[in-house]
Amino acid sequence: MTEPLAALPDEELTVLDLADRLLNRGVVLAGEATISVAGVDLIYLGLNVILTAVETIAQHERRTR
Description:
The chain has helices at about 15-25, 55-65; strands at about 25-35, 40-50. The protein is α+β, with helices and mostly antiparallel strands. It has one domain. A two-stranded antiparallel sheet has the order 1-2. A hairpin with a 2-residue loop joins strand 1 and strand 2. The radius of gyration is 18 Å and the shape is flat.
């Protein structure tokens, strides 16, 4: 398992730096929404997304074998 992220130093991050950090570690987004009218649920939306680099997945696969 990887170490937790350390506190970031007081420096400016570019969007590219942030994307690089997120893709190297991986991010899981989960959410849900329900659309209802007059108390009747009409539509339920569930969202589960894993965002990571292909290389990160390959490294994880090699470690688990």
